[in-house]
Amino acid sequence: MSSTRRDPATYPPYFYEAYRATVRRSPRHPPVRLPVTLSELTGPGPAVSQVSTEDADLTRNMGTGEEAIGERMIVVGRVTDHRDEPIAGALVEVWQANAAGRYRHKVDQHGAPLDPNFLGWGRCLTNADGVYRFVTIRPGAYPWENHPNAWRPPHIHFSLLGPAWGSRLITQMFFPGDPLLALDPIFNAVPAPARERLVAHYAHDVTQPGYALGYRFDVVLVGPRATPAEPFEASARDRQ
Ligand SMILES: [Fe+2]
Questions:
Q1: For the chain, what is the domain count?
Q2: How far is the CA of 68 from the centre of ligand 1 (A)?
Q3: What pTM was estimated for this model as a whole?
C-alpha cells in the first residue's frame, strides 16, 4: 500500500501552506525508503477478540446507562480494495467531537460543554462483505487555531487497520452540503477530484424510522478510486 499512498491525484501533499500544522511537520528532505520486513507485513494486527458489539454504539458506549445528547445517526460503509473486493475483518475505529463540538480530551479547551454520556470513540470489525456499521450522534463544528476564525466542519475521524500494523489508513468523513467544507484547509488539501470521496452520502435506506438518520461512507484502500488518507497519522494527537 505504501507505494500508492502518495499518488498526488488522490492524497494531500505533505506540505500545504494553508494547513498550518503541515508547515512545521512536513519533511524538509526527500523521504528515505525503508525496506518492509516480515514484522510489518504479518503483524501484530488488531486484538479482534477484544472488540464487542457495544463498542460500535457511541450513543451508549460511555457505559453510564444514559444516552448521549445529539442528533442520532447511523453510519455504514463498505471497505474494499482496488478490485472492489471486500476487506473482511478489518478493525474500524472512529473518534469524534460531541454534538457541541467538544472532544473528551485534555487538550481540548473549547468552551462548549462535555457530554457526560458521550465517550467519542468507537470500534467494530468489518463483516464478510467488508461492511462496518456505527450508531453515533452527529458531531458539532469546533474552532481551531489554524487561522483567524477557523472552524473545522463536522467530521468523524476513521482509522482502518488490516491484518498488520503497516496496513493502516487514517482519514476523515465529512457531511454533504456543509458550508464549512469550502473553508477547511484539511479538506481542501486533498486534490479536488478526490475530495468528494471524503463526503458521506445521506442514505434513506439506512435511516431507521423514528430513530436515526443514515449515512453511507465507503472506503477504498488503494488504487485510482482510493479514499484519500491523511498526510500524517497524527490527527488524534494534534486534535484536528
Ligand atoms: Fe477532529
A1: 1
A2: 18
A3: 0.91
